Amino acid sequence: MIQLAALLWVGVAATPTFPLVPATQFPGASGEVALRRAWSPFDIALTRDGVLVYDLTVTVAGLPRAEVGQTFVAWLATPNLDRVRRLGPVQQETPLTGRVDWNQFLVVVTLESGEPGDRWAGATVLMGRSPSSLIRPLWGHSIFRPTPF
Fold first, then answer.
1. What is the sign of the dihedral through the CA atoms of 81, 75, 109 and 60?
2. If pLDDT is split at 50, 70 and 90, which confidence band does 17 have?
3. pLDDT at position 27, please?
4. Is residue 4 situated within a structural domain?
5. Which segments within the chain are labelled E, that is strand?
6. CATH number of the CATH domain containing 90
7. Which of 24, 74, 123, 135 has its CB surrounded by the most CB atoms within 10 Å?
8. pLDDT over 50 (residue 7)
9. What are the φ/ψ torsions at residue 38 (nearest 5 degrees)?
């Protein structure tokens, strides 16, 4: 169902975007992620497993001044955080591009001290969820749980 919804979403003419929401410690920060279908000679780029591939552009604004040795870094993660990829350092109003091949994902911007590793260790500054991560199965909804009378 997720892949069907994603295929329908791909046909949208406008470039889909989603916001990056600031953590409470960074109220002036903001950001946006723009998604585009990755180029393919077959019109739709897919992985071997049939997952859509997107090019994304992360743009941030209102970040506080980083201290010496600190860097703002953008990351991709699956919703349950079992897989994480570093996109790279981000700067004010300077777009950062990357590629994602997960159906559902998060974009997280953190403030890292020192050289970033394979996973973030610094404070979360901004976070956003891909539109496909908003799709949830209904069987977890309260209307489907038995209620004692």
1. negative
2. very high
3. 94
4. no
5. 17-22, 30-37, 54-61, 70-77, 84-89, 96-100, 106-113, 123-129
6. 2.60.40
7. 74
8. no
9. -70, 150
